[in-house]
Design a protein that fits this description.
By secondary structure, this protein is an alpha/beta fold. The chain has a single domain, classed as Collagenase (Catalytic Domain), CATH 3.40.390. It is built from six helices and four strands, in the order βαβαβαβααα. The two termini are about 30 Å apart. The N terminus is likely disordered.
Length: about 180
């Protein structure tokens, strides 16, 4: 995992980070959930969410499908919430300019992908939410991946205006994702 720390979502300007098709999506699935969803499909969902932006950056995104305990511990450590949640997003940058820098503060060569951040999803929580919502697990996972990517891109839902805008972008992406 490339997690280096939690940056509050209000530190990122909404929609400020933009995507180019040469992104790299790193998918890690805890062994207990391996084979339940293909890594290729998980990667495709993240790519569709990144495609919502104009073409400017080529990010590397890490997507981790984890268990409740891991997500609970991360939620406690980085958000101070002693509970499991469905998805956590850890953006590494606060602007397009800094996304072009490597860890030492040097600009990345054009062929390099900048790390955008990491998304960690609790598969058991997603399964519970899918069951409660009477929808397939793929639909719930797609929603959580898209939601996480949008947070990495600077979207938030801290107030009604932001929420409305983020939900509209989320729906726009979800319409393009095959659930079979």
């Amino acid at each position: 995992m490339m997690m280096s720390g939690f940056i509050p979502s209000d530190a990122v300007e909404e929609g400020s980070l933009e995507y180019t098709p040469s992104s790299q999506i790193e998918v890690q699935v805890f062994p207990a959930f391996a084979g339940r969803l293909s890594k290729a499909w998980l990667r495709k969902v993240a790519e569709e969410a990144l495609d919502i932006q104009d073409e400017v950056i080529s990010p590397t995104v890490s997507l981790v499908i984890a268990d409740d305990e891991t997500v609970h511990n991360l939620n406690m450590e980085y958000r101070g919430l002693d509970e499991t949640t469905d998805v956590l997003a850890f953006p590494l940058w606060t602007s397009t300019e800094s996304a072009n820098l490597n860890a030492d503060g040097f600009f990345l060569p054009p062929e390099e992908t900048a790390p955008l951040g990491e998304i960690v999803i609790s598969y058991p929580q997603a399964a519970r939410q899918a069951q409660e919502g009477k929808r397939p697990i793929r639909a719930e996972m797609a929603l959580l991946i898209v939601h996480g990517v949008l947070h990495l891109l600077g979207y938030d839902h801290a107030n009604p205006r932001q929420e409305s805008h983020m939900w509209a972008r989320q729906d726009e992406v979800l319409e393009r994702i095959p659930l079979k």
